[in-house]
Amino acid sequence: MGMTGAERREGIIETIKNSSVPVSGTALAKKYEVSRQVIVQDIALIRAAGHDIISTYRGYILEARPTVKRMFKVLHTEEQLEDELQTIVDLGGIILNVKVRHRVYGEMKAPLNIRSRKQVQDFMEDIRSGKSSPLMNITSHYHYHEVEADSEETLDQIERALEKKGYLIR
């Protein structure tokens, strides 16, 4: 009947995000009917998952980082897939999705949200295990990635790196 830890953490993120003032750990503990210590542990896990929650003397706030997005049209082999994804995350990009334009099926898009080497590894294991095959395989390897980063400069760096490796299509 009670909510899981993951559900509670999602709720905590939403509560902090939607609050115009810092939210105290005590208020969160009361709202979710857990101890203050559980909230402290939850905040640590939420931070580890990549959310910028800042502790102030008045409570927790979520730092909304400004982000920019860019669509990259790329072409590479399946063997180069891992290198392409690592190049993007190593330079600070988040690969939001992969998109292909098929002559028959039209546009097809799949969410990825890959932001670390660990997530690249997990994705590659899914591909190698045969659990799924890359979407790019149905369009002769032409595909698009929507990439999010903290600045245009970061996106420019990613673009130059992909171009240097010969993955970028103009």
Structural descriptors:
about 170 residues; two-stranded antiparallel sheet
Short précis:
By secondary structure, this protein is of the alpha+beta class. It is built from 6 helices and 6 strands. The model has no long low-confidence stretch (mean pLDDT 90).
Relative strand content: 15-25%
What is the number of strand segments? 6
What value does the average pLDDT take? 90
Structural class comes to alpha+beta
Largest pleated sheet: 4 strands, antiparallel
Strands of the widest sheet, in order across it, are: 3-6-4-5
Fraction of helical residues: 40-55%
Give the count of helical stretches: 6
Radius of gyration, in Å, reads: 20 Å
Residue runs with pLDDT of under 50 for 5 or more positions: none
Order of helices and strands: HHHEEEHEEHEH
Helix/strand layout:
Elements: H1 5-18, H2 25-32, H3 36-48, E1 53-56, E2 59-62, E3 68-75, H4 81-90, E4 94-102, E5 106-114, H5 117-128, E6 142-149, H6 152-164
Antiparallel strand pairs: 1-2, 3-6, 4-5, 4-6
Helix pairs in contact: 1-3, 2-3, 4-5
Descriptive account of the structure:
- The chain is of the alpha+beta class and 170 residues long.
- Helices cover 41% and strands 25% of the residues.
- The protein has six helices and six strands.
- It has helices spanning 5-18, 25-32, 36-48, 81-90, 117-128, 152-164; strands at 53-56, 59-62, 68-75, 94-102, 106-114, 142-149.
- The protein has a four-stranded antiparallel beta sheet, covered by helices on one side. Strands 1-2 form a two-stranded antiparallel sheet.
- A hairpin with a 2-residue loop joins strand 1 and strand 2 (59-62).
- Helix 1 (5-18) crosses helix 3 (36-48).
- The N and C termini lie far apart (54 Å).
- The mean pLDDT is 90.
